[in-house]
Structure formats: C-alpha cells, structure tokens
Amino acid sequence: MILAVAEDEATHWRYAIYAARCLRTLIRRDSPVSPDHLHYFLEKVRDNHPSLRYYAQRALMKTARYIKLRTFARSATDLVLEKNNNPLKCKVDVPVPSHKFTADFLEGFRQPIDPKTAPHKPTYCEKLTTGWVAWSSTLTMYLPPYPTKSSLKPWETDSEDAITEVRNFAADDEWWKDVSVHYSSETHSESVSSDNISTVKSIVQLLEGESFEALQTIVEELVEDPDQNKQRGAAEFLAGLVIGAKHWPADSQDRLWKWAMPVIQKAFSQRIKTDTLPIWTSFLEYVFYNRDPRRHQTLVDYILREFEATDYNGESSLVAVKALSFLRAFYEDEGRKFVPWADDIVRRVWPEIHSDHDEVRAYISEMLTFTNKIKWEPKPSIPSAEVFVRECRTTPVDIDIMGMRGSYHKDRVQELVKHFPTWRAERLPGARAFQSNYDRVGTTVCRWLYQSVHDTNAISAYDYIVPLLPELFRFTEAVLDVIFDTIQNSPSWKVRLQAMPLVQVFYFRQVPLISEAKVTEILEVLCKCLDDEVVEVREMAATTLSGVLRLSSRRSILTLKNRFLRLLNRSHLPERKDPAYNAAIRQRHAAILGICALVDSYPYTVERWMPELLTNVLAEHTYDPVPISTTVQKCASNFKKTHQDTWHEDSKRFTEDQLTALSTLLTGSSYYA
User: Where is the Proteasome activator complex subunit 4-like HEAT repeat-like domain (predicted)?
Assistant: First the structure.
C-alpha cells in the first residue's frame, strides 16, 4: 500500500517523501528486498526532487549493505550484530614484536604489489590501529583478490531478483545520464558528495565489471567539460567506481586503472582551476581514506612524481599549490602509513621554505607539522603492552620513554638558527621587506610552530622553539613595520581604519619585547595619523594612541602633552571661505584628539597636568566647529563616566575656578542661567 501511494503521480511531494522514508525503513537485514521495492528507489535516484533523491540513494546503499551482510553471515547472530564476514578479511598473528618489525612493516607500504601475481595471502592493511606504542596479538589484514575469479560473488540467491533489477538500471545509458545531470547540477559545494559516491560504489560492488562501460562514457563526457559542476560530477562517479572496485578480480582492476589513470591525469593537468582544485582534492581524500596505498599504486606514483617535478617558484602559484594539495590529501588520509615517504618529502620541500608564493610556504609548514607528528614514536625496549607498562613504572623520570621530545627536525632548526642572522642582514627595506628570505622563512616557521603547539604532540615544539627564541623575539619589529606601512601608505581609508587597532593589540601582547626606539616609532606613527584626511581614521588613531599610552612611560606622556599644546597654539581658523580653512580645521582637530587621548589614557585617576588640560584647554574649544566640538564633548562625557565613583577624591585635584569651568564643560551653559 505504501509503495502504491509513493508511485502514484497524484501523491503530493510531501507525502511522497514521507512514503519514501517509510519504504526505506522497511528494508530489513534478515529479509531480501522485493524487486518492486528496489525498482521504486532506483527510479527516484534520478527524480527531480532533491529530498526524494536523497532518501532513494540512502535506501539503495542500505539494500546493498544488507545483501553483502546476508551473503557472508554465518549465523543469525551475525545479522543481528551486523557483523560483515568479508571473505578477504582475516586476522593475522603478530610475531614477537620488535622495533625492526615495526620499521619493516611500515616500509612495506612503499613496496609496490602486483595484484595479478601477488600470492593469495594477507597483504593489505587498511586501518593501522596498532603498533605505535605496542603491538596487539593480531592484526586485521586483507587478501588480494583472485586474478580472474570474483572474490565476493555469487551473492545470496534470495536477492538475485533485486540484483537483476539493479543490473537492468545500470545497463540503461539513459538512467546514468539522468543521474549525471543531477550530480553535475549547479550547487555551492566545493567538494564531492559522499552520498553520491557511496551510491555509485554500492552499484559497482554488486555488479563489479558489468557497470564499467556505462560509467566510462559518463565520466569521459563530464571530464571534457571544464565547468566546475561537471568536474564535481565526474569526480563523484570516478571516486565511486575506484572505491567500489576494491575487491574486483585483479585483471578487472588492471583494466580499470589502465583506463582511469589517463582520465585522472587529464583532469589534473588540464581541468584544474581555483574552483575545481578543492573538488579533485576531496576526490583524493575519499579514494585514500582507510585504504592501503598499495591498492592505488599507479595513482600514488603519479602524485609523488608530480610533487617531485613541480617548480615551486614558478610564475603560477596554482601549479605548485595543486601538487601540494594533492600530496596533502594523500598523506593526511594515510596517517602513519605515510611514514616511508616522510624523509623524502621533507627533503624535497625544505629548500622551498622561502618560496616566492605564500600558499606554498603554508603547505610546507603543514608538512613539517605532520611529519614531526607521524615520526613521533614511544621508546620502550620492546613494543609490547607488558614491557611498556613495566618500563613506565620503573624507568627514571628523566628518561623520555614516550619519545615526546622534538628530534626529527632538530638539524633543520639548527640550520635556521645559523642562517637567520644572514637573512636579517640582507632584509630589504620598506615595502619590499616581505620579499626577503628573512620574512618568508620567518612566517613559515611561525606557522609551523603555531600548528605544532596546538597539536597532540605540542611538547615536541619545545626543542624547536628554544633555539629560535632570539629570532622569534626579533620578528616583532618586522611585524610592526608591515602594520606601519599599511597604516601610512594604504590608499584605502577603510584599510587604514581596520589596521589601526592591530597596533594596540600587538603592543599589549608584545610590550616586553618591543625596544624603546620602536615604542617611540609607534607613538610617532599614531600622532601622524591624527592628521589623516578622514575623520574616522583620525578618531581611531586617537583611540589607539590612548590605549598605547596606558602602558607607556610618564615621560612620553609629558612630551606628547607639550607637542599637542604647541600644535594647538599654532592652529588659527581663517574664514570659512578661505582655501586653507579645511587644513586648519584638521590641524586643530589633530591637536584636540591628541589631548583627549592623553586624558582618556588615565580613565581612573587624575594626573597633575589633567585639570589644566580639561578646564583651560578643552573648555575653550567647546563651541568650535564640528568635529572639534563633538570630540571635546565626547572626551568630557567619558571623563565624567569613568570618574563618577571616585569623584569625592578626584575633585580635590581641582581648584574652585577649575571645578566651575569643568562643570560648564560637563553640563554646558544655559541661556536662561
């Protein structure tokens, strides 16, 4: 009845979605799905309504999963617990554990395997969940597939009708074209869809090579189109095909890869743009996730070959970023299985640490962090749980049994310590400073160390940071120079406005490391900004100056007070029609802003020089033209607000005449008084 309602064209789409959800729920693990039931879902996979497609794809995945479960179930208990007894999956006894065994096992991931000639014995390891601290007694591994015979077929006989239904749809080119239209439709997604990939994978696993030719045509057509959405559709079909072929016969896999690699190489070499790079990167992430790298040996070889051959200082940063992005997708999803390549990868990228492209240096910093992490190994005499626990209990505390100290990059850090003084001496002046090796390497090192201290092996960064501390302290001045250049030379007043608060934040954080000369330069730059052409920038400069002065010496306060008073005394306002009127207003406003910054820098005390500034200087300019008068009124309002609670003590700093003048400044004078 539910199926009849769902298939009825008169059913409203909301009820159709509810019916699809009910039908999906009725798929049982202990009973095969009927052909009509599955036919409905296969039709809805190409439906125009996205929600119906979503539930149909989920139902198709669920059906395929339960077919495999029933085929390999050894008892009803396996069905209840959803225990999948894959015939190629087996438990292997771990020999007497040793560090040599660990090293040899990891090195094995780099040794190519020919599936057609490999002996039918445990070979592949998809998930490496043991062997870091200690080895367990057994290890889950997989047998390679047979050369020509299917390793999984035949499926259970009760599901033969349902599989025939899937076969009929998969043989229909029009059905695949309709599905591809939806997969390659315009969306805002910058990565492949896991549901789409899993749907294709489920069909490919059930039918094996029977669906290959139809998918070949679809993928080739989509790859030819450079449009971002078409590339995403091609990546989803190709990922589902490659992942689903995991247990195909070796000859079928060989035929698949002979076709797939030219298609992948074409996509990677001719179809990669800034909008398609994330798509193909996510394709690799799905392909390598929980996979032994030897299953995709030709793809691994291609990625490493491109990584080695790429020029990381070429005119186009996209070429370099592409190679590094694909490599990152490989090593992040392989984890510790990437250990055999770690030394070669670091050796290749280390000379590029001062690359011309900032994106390249960002990738290099991530690689340094990742390789340091996967090279971290505990150091019990024997990698077994018993020995590890015993040695943790008996060894002295100064023995680093967990191997947490940073040693992998120690020689490279010493190389940096040696070269930084030379790079600092060669640093280009002014706006070209960012082109210097000193700045480029410095930012790369800071990224690397920042990522390291926020990772699980943060303690290893200690041995890298300590030798670099003198240079890290010197980086502060270089950062300030960049901020100063932006504030003073940016043509956009909005950029100048947004950059101004960075000075205050940086000053608060780094004040013990900033030299006296640099503090003077900070104050000088902010004082110059008080005379900016844009009012908003001038006001932000005053706010920033006030914050900086709160942590500055009193000598600086007095020097600036005299400077602003001299500037104010020199400012004379001509007639409004005078061409120099605007410049004179700006000059006086700069002086008033500076004086207000001095007052605001002491929000909870009254200094000896403050009563004079409030009553004899600011009060005289209460009725000056805007924005001078508004600045004075705002300063007076802030003073009243911050000193209200302690006014009984602060008022003693003022004379009677000054209190009268201050009252007028704070409350204003009335015409009727």
Answer: 123-327
Rounded Cα distance, 531 and 524, in Å:
12
CA distance 239 to 285: 10
Task: Report the alpha-carbon distance of residue 436 to residue 424 in Å, rounded.
Answer: 9
Cα separation, 89 vs 108, in Å, equals 19
- Looking up tokens 């280390």, which residue turns up? 350
Q: Which amino acid is at 336?
A: R
Q: What does the pLDDT look like over 614-623, one tens digit per residue? A: 888 888 888 8
The pLDDT score that the predictor gives to residue 579 is 85
| CA proximity to 318, closest of 264, 278, 364 | 278
In the three-class reduction of DSSP (H, G, I as helix; E, B as strand; rest coil), residue 140 is classed as strand
On whether the CB atoms of residues 524 and 576 are closer than 8 A, the answer is: no
Give the integer Cα–Cα distance in Å for 369 and 447. Answer: 9
Q: What does the longest C-alpha to C-alpha distance in the chain come to? A: 107
> Which one is predicted more confidently, 543 or 518?
543
Residues forming beta bridges with residue 138, ordered by sequence position? 93
**Which of 540, 535, 512 is CA-nearest to residue 525?**
540
Q: How would DSSP label each residue in 34-52? A: PHHHHHHHHHHTT-SSHHH
> Taking residues 293-315, what's their average pLDDT?
94
pTM over 0.90: no
Q: How far apart are CA 234 and CA 215, in angstroms?
A: 10
Nearest-10 Cα torsion for 114, 119, 122, 125: -10
- pLDDT exceeds cutoff 80 at 453: yes
Mutual angle of helices 581-600 and 628-643, in 10-degree steps: 10
**Residue pair 198/237 in contact by the 8 Å Cβ criterion:** no
pLDDT tens sequence across 50-61: 999 999 999 999
93 strand-pairing partners:
138
Residues 499-538: b if buried by 16+ CB within 10 A, e if exposed:
bbebbbebbeebeeebeeebbebbbebbbebbbbeebebb
The single residue listed with the structure tokens 């924005």 is 627
56-96 residue pLDDT tens: 999 999 999 999 999 999 888 888 888 888 999 999 999 88
Within 8 A by CB and 6+ apart from 61, the residues are: 195, 198, 199, 202
**C-alpha to C-alpha distances, 375 to 369, 404, 471, nearest whole angstrom:** 10, 10, 26
Residues 98 and 307 sit within 8 Å (Cβ to Cβ):
no
Q: How far apart are CA 252 and CA 208, in angstroms?
A: 9
pLDDT per residue as tens digits for the range 352-361: 999 999 999 9
Question: Do residues 353 and 361 touch, judged by C-beta distance below 8 A?
Answer: yes
